[in-house]
């Protein structure tokens, strides 16, 4: 073990032990209420800070997935035998099971995902908030009575799918784990969830803590491994009745195809190329600060990152100048440092993707205003995947950097001349996840927001997200919705029940008999 990485390995081992997960044996899955080792090939995790080996574990494999589905099936039946009110009480207790473990979970996420510790602390609180919100929905999923034109009483119930399969990404593993788990079990389902193979442990920790608080054993199962093995076993298992995926459009297509082959529906929360529109009457101090937060938070590794800044030509130069100056003041450093505002990119593959896109843009005429390389002044051990906040101007809409998701701390700034021009540019991608409008004209703000093909639109703000509000996109950003009441509905199926109330039933031959 290289001396530079000894501290990170020791810290990870200590954190896992604190949570009851032994790092010296690869207990990487949570199945039927127990930690279980994988049965496949070894997977090596690298430290985002140093680029050096951090820990190894084994791919779960098809047999572990089958065990997880079986456990979820049995636990789901037990879960649905409880009253809705009791399920709500148990979900609330599960949320509070995190109490006292917040700092350990935040530190674990920071070490493995390379996220600034202060960001991870906020995400732990969001996990509890999500479970508390959906706990309140357990006994409020009302049906309805349809006034059918017959002697029947017709009522509609919303019933769970049974067992759902979920796959979450590496950029926010703890957040997206809870984002998907909470509505699924509130709707009455059992779950088998596969995190990214690069960030496996926080999802296991959350499932372990919550099930030990009173959820049925096996209601939440976490299987860890790579897509071609563990992922394929999950999406192809006959016991999975719905698939939910958060990640790239390329992988999302494969997930949807796997589900379609078995006639299993899916929810896809995919990438974005979100447009942040600044009109010339905007409060520029707020707009520049919002533009920075929109792209440089989490090192740009966010599906809703405001990666395209569209600025009205009258204020284009001054906004570019302010952005470049402000980007240089962002504190890039070790995730463990309380002062760090932006940490490293999570993995080598993503780092190479980002830097290659920057270089390609420059070769096609884009002008580098700042960044584009490793920041200076980093600690000696920071030899990993660090990239300075990067701003590019002179970008045209046909360039790849303006059309494809970079998923890194890279902002392209493009001018527009009119409201019509801004809307056209904003909608000129195959993505449709989010967007923002900065203006002091309220009529224009609402008018432009209504014309943006984006699932979430902010006005004079960016990245305000809450579990109460639906989230999702159009086009290559996916379909279906997470969070809010709409997210809950994704996990149920409407069941129509007909009860004959006539003194003597009249059953006639033919479809639709008795109507009219």
Give an account of the 3D structure:
With 516 residues, the chain is of the alpha/beta class. The chain is 38% helix and 19% strand. It has 16 helices and 22 strands. The protein has helices spanning 3-18, 62-80, 84-96, 102-113, 117-135, 173-186, 201-211, 227-235, 249-261, 284-296, 313-327, 348-363, 400-403, 419-426, 442-451, 484-489; strands at residues 29-31, 34-36, 42-46, 53-58, 144-146, 152-160, 163-167, 190-194, 220-222, 242-246, 266-269, 275-278, 308-312, 367-370, 390-393, 410-416, 431-432, 434-438, 456-459, 474-475, 478-479, 492-500. The strands form six sheets. A seven-stranded mixed beta sheet has the order 14-15-16-13-12-18-19, sandwiched between helices. Helix 1 packs antiparallel against helix 4 (102-113). The longest helix is centred in the first third of the chain and has 19 residues, at 62-80. It is globular. It starts with a helix and ends in a 16-residue tail after the last strand. The mean pLDDT is 94.
- The level of helicity is 25-40%
User: How are the strands of the largest sheet arranged?
Assistant: 14-15-16-13-12-18-19
The coarse silhouette is globular
Our estimate of the beta-strand percent is: 15-25%
Alpha plus pi helix count = 16
Euclidean distance between termini CA atoms? 79 Å
Radius of gyration: 24 Å
Coarse structural class: alpha/beta
Major sheet attributes: 7 strands, mixed
Pfam family, one: Aldedh
Keywords: Oxidoreductase
Organism: Chromohalobacter canadensis
Active site: 269
